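Continuing from the previous page of notes. For each protein in this section, the sequence appears first, followed by its C-alpha cells. Read the first protein now.
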Amino acid sequence: MTDLTTAAAAPGLPTAPDPSGPLTARGDREGRNEGRGDREGRGDREGCEGREGRGDREGREGREWSLDELADAYAYPADLPTEGPGSAWLRANMVSTLDGAAQHDGRSQPISCAADMRIFGTLRALADVVIAGAETVRLEGYRPARAREAFAARRAAAGQGPAPAVAVVSGSLDLDFSLPLFTEPLVPTLVVTGAGAPADRIAAARRAGAEVVIAGEGTRVDPARAVRELAGRGLRRQLTEGGPRLLGQFVAAGALDELCLTLSPMLTAGDAQRIAGGPGVTVPERFALASLLEEDGFLFGRYRRGSAR
C-alpha cells in the first residue's frame, strides 16, 4: 500500500507511518462472512481476485502495511476530553465507485476489495462502538463484532473491551432479535431509538439482551443526541458504517467529525445510492484531507472536518 500524502494538513491526527519497512504478512483473515458489515474475514472480494503477492510485485515501491501501521495511521485523536462537549469522535467508513455509487445490486461488497477489508477491520478494532442503520444491518447481514488477537493489546491499553459494541439505529425497532447480532455478541448490542418507539418492540429488544438507548422524541432518532447518549455510556470512539440514509442524517446534523472513504476504481452507472442521502445541507461543509493511501487503483482517503465542534 502506497502512502500518497502525509497528514500534515490535519493537526491533531496522526501522520501516516513510513511504509519503507519490511514486508508483513496479511494475517487475521479467518472466517468468510457475507456483507460489508462483516467483511473483516474476506480475502477474496470481487474486484480483488488474483492479487496475491502484492507486496513484492515488479515495479512496486510500496508493500502491504501491517495491521499495527494501519492502526497507527487511523488512530483516534488522543486528546479527546473524557466528558462534555467534544468528548466523542464520530467517523464514518464508506466505499464509493468513481461514478458515486455506494452499492451494487444493493450491497457494497461488489465494489470493495481486500485492502478495503483490512482497513474496515482496523477501523472496527479501534472503535468503542460501531453504529449502523437498521436497513444496512438487514441488507449486509451484520453479525457481532469479534475479538481480534492482533488488536488485543492495543484495546487493553486504551481501556477498551475485547470488541466494539454494535449500535443499531431504528425508530420502529423492526428487527429480528433472534439473530446472532443480538443473541451472541461479546458485548451487548445496543438499539438506538426514540421515546415513542413501540413498547412491545422495546420489551422484545430487552428480552433479547440488547441495551435500549433513547435518543429522540417520538420514533425519530436525533443523530446528534445519539452521539451524546453513546458517549455518555463511555462509547466515545464512534464508527458509523452507514448506510447512506443514516450517514446523511449525521452530516445534516453536523455530527460527523471524520470520513474514511474508499474510492473504488469501478463504474456502475444505474441509480445506486450515494454514500450519504436525505435532505441536503444549506451550506456545504469543507473537510480537510488527513491522509491518502493507494493500492491497486483503490484510494483510501481520510478527511476530517475543518473545525472542531
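Done with the first. The second protein uses the same format. Note its length before scrolling.
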Amino acid sequence: MRLRSPAAEDGEPVGTAYGFAVEADTGWWDELTEPVPDDMRREDGCHTFGLMELAVRGPWRGQGVARCLHETLLNRVEARRVLPNVHPDGKAASAAYRAWAIARPARRAPGKPGPL
C-alpha cells in the first residue's frame, strides 16, 4: 500500500509512505541488522505490516506531513502489529519515530532488497 502526499508548487509530492503485509514465507527477518527471536518471525500474511518507507521532502519537514502520512496509511492496515523500518542512516525517520514514542524501528542492512 502506498500513499503520496499532496503535490508542492513544483508538482512533486511533498512526501510518501508505503508498506506491505509480511507473508508467511518471507526471508525478510534475515535481512535485519539485529537477530529477531523465532516467536517474532511467525507470519501468516496478516500478522505484521512492514512500514518500509516514510519520507518527507526537506522544506516540508516539521509541519506534520510525516505524522499525517503515517496515521493515514496505518488507518488502512488491519495487521496485528506494525513494524517501521529505517535505513541505518535514516536520521529524520528515526527522529520522527522517537518523537512519536514508537518503539525502536527495525533496521535493514544497507543495500538489502525489500521482501517483495
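What the second structure shows: The helical segments are 38-41, 65-74, 91-99. Strands lie at 2-4, 15-21, 48-56, 81-86, 106-107. We return to this in next week's lecture.
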